[in-house]
Design a protein that fits this description.
The chain is of the alpha+beta class. Helix content is about 25%, strand content about 25%.
Length: about 140
């Protein structure tokens, strides 16, 4: 996937644009220069993937991975901040520090019942509501 980091002129924030979705480009006289001290690695460090939303606060997230999935979480961490904070035969708990955005929710949903959000409660409730809506689709 080829991406372009650019300033959204309508909302005045940085945004990633997928080049394969750009339908046209218009050259204008408007210019934007990244600050000299801008560091992409630092800027993206608090995000899970490509969805950027500075209005989403950085949060401590605790996930519980079941007996089988805990090994996957150890070998393929979800985020560079991931730390294992507890383990037993039946499950392991992992802590992450990131800004949970849409792509992170989608990743959590992809694990189905192999993981559970323990903290924060607001993220747990959001995933619960998404699961309820998914069940409704199949009724």
């Amino acid at each position: 996937m080829n991406l372009l980091l650019a300033r959204n002129v309508d909302y005045n924030y940085l945004r990633l644009y997928s080049l394969d979705r750009i339908e046209g480009v218009n050259l204008t006289d408007a210019h934007f220069v990244l600050p000299k001290d801008f560091c992409a690695k630092e800027y993206f460090a608090e995000y899970f993937g490509i969805v950027l939303d500075e209005s989403v606060p950085l949060q401590r997230i605790v996930l519980r991975a079941d007996k089988c999935h805990q090994h996957y979480m150890r070998t393929l961490p979800l985020h560079h901040s991931q730390k294992e904070i507890y383990a037993c035969d039946d499950y392991a708990d992992f802590e992450l520090a990131l800004r949970p955005t849409y792509d992170f929710y989608m990743k959590l949903m992809s694990f189905g019942n192999m993981i559970k959000v323990l903290e924060p409660k607001s993220l747990q409730e959001k995933i619960y509501k998404w699961l309820e809506k998914t069940i409704e689709v199949y009724k």
